[in-house]
Amino acid sequence: MDALEVNKQLLGEIEDMGFPRARAAKALHYSGNTSLEAAINWIIDHDNDPDIDQLPPLIAVNIDIESPQPSQTNEETQNKVQELRDQARKRKEDEEKKLEREREKERIRAGKQILEAKRIAEDNERKRYLALRKAEKEEEKRAREKVLHRLEADKAERRRMLGLPPSVSHTAINPSRYVVKEKKNFFHSATKAEELRECLRSIRRNHKNDDATVQRAFQTLLIYVGNVVKNPDVEKFRKIRISNPIFQDRVGRLKGGIEFLELCGFERIEGGKFLFLPRDRIDLAVLNSAGSEIRSAITNPFFGLLSCE
């Protein structure tokens, strides 16, 4: 391209409107010199071009071509320019609104993707939690089985040391062997150790939701038994006032507490006001067995709570 072909008359009108010659010439050339309106539209569309007022190097401006239309008065031209500017502004506003709608659609789409990703993450976290809980339950089950096996082995060893025959399988035990006497209110069983253990189970079962009360009762019974074993000749360790508030709170009020002491040899005296263990009725084997059963109950977290106990 050696020259810009422009219409002299239209060029003058555009310059009269305040536009630089280079801009006016380029507008007329690139709009085909068809009309003042087309040239003004080109100027409006390219208003932000950095080189809009610069002519390409070595390019001349040919202003000899004929005018395609009658010239307009200056006032008509100004009105036309304003109209064209209004139209251009309207187009830009419409384009901005369209772009804003597109951006809003994109924000909604992105928001949906974020919500879906969050839902998937929460679902995966829930599945991971359920899998973890399942693994924990299985581990707890294995731990209980290990404790039960160890308890069974310990029980068998205690029976062997006491010279007792092996215990009968739990499935073969006849429940009718465990009955409560009306007067003494303690359990009959095949052996004294089983009777003692059943008393401790009764305390645990009746207070399964109050571990502090159960542990305090076991510790108190262990102290009573231990004091007699260590000091069999001291009468104060072999005599308990049943109405004593501390005794009642820790042992007396609990089903199985007084029965346990009676199995150890204590008997009611003075109209049932005291529990007393005569010196000649002390049986160290029974007391040692009672102490062993209490310690086992204290250390076994599942004592008295599992159906297979």
Automatic annotation (TrEMBL):
Comp. bias regions, Basic and acidic residues: 82-105
Compositional bias per record (Polar residues), positions renumbered to this chain: 68-81
Domain annotation UBA: ranges: 5-46
Pfam families tied to this protein: PUB, UBA_7
Annotated region described as Disordered, given as residue ranges: 67-105
InterPro entries from the UniProt entry: PUB-like_dom_sf (IPR036339), PUB_domain (IPR018997), UBA (IPR015940), UBA-like_sf (IPR009060)
Protein name: UBA domain-containing protein
